[in-house]
Amino acid sequence: MEHVKEVTGETFAAEVLKSDLPVLVDFWAPWCGPCRTVRPVVEAVAAKMAGRVRFASLNTDENMALAGTYAITAIPTLIVFVGGAEKDRIIGVLPGHELERRLATFAPAVTAAD
């Protein structure tokens, strides 16, 4: 997870809400099978978009209050934050090219892969 930073309730504001770049946060839990499926997709996209979008991962089991704050009712949930505000929400698994396409909306200098 070289390009995906683990965040917690204590580090969320500094790492996500106050970021000068768009941030995709992967809300997950260790027991979640689909979360294990989406993790390599997020990691691959994070490597491609490094420097344009930040990527973070939040364990909902260990950060239940924050998961509640963002009304996480299903996992995996990916939320894109821009300027501290939620701009996009993806629930479930999607292909890497689709994730890149959606993120390109917030980082226009990056061209989504075909």
Secondary structure blueprint with pairings:
Blueprint: E1 4-6, H1 12-17, E2 23-28, H2 33-48, E3 54-59, H3 64-69, E4 77-82, E5 85-91, H4 96-104
Parallel strand pairs: 1-3, 2-3
Antiparallel strand pairs: 2-4, 4-5
Helix pairs in contact: 2-4
For the structure shown, list the relevant keywords:
single chain; Glutaredoxin; five-stranded mixed β-sheet; 25% strand
Structural features, described:
Mean pLDDT is 92; it is low at 110-114. A five-stranded mixed beta sheet has the order 1-3-2-4-5. It has 114 residues and is α/β, with parallel strands linked by helices. The chain is built from four helices and five strands, in the order βαβαβαββα. The two termini are 24 Å apart. It has one domain (4-104): Glutaredoxin, CATH 3.40.30.
Number of strands: 5
- Placed side by side, the strands forming the largest sheet appear as 1-3-2-4-5
CATH architecture term: 3-Layer(aba) Sandwich
Q: Assign the structural class, choosing from mainly alpha, mainly beta, alpha/beta, alpha+beta, or little secondary structure.
A: alpha/beta
The CATH topology turns out to be: Glutaredoxin
Quick structural overview:
The protein has 114 residues and is an alpha/beta fold. The chain has one domain (4-104): Glutaredoxin, CATH 3.40.30.
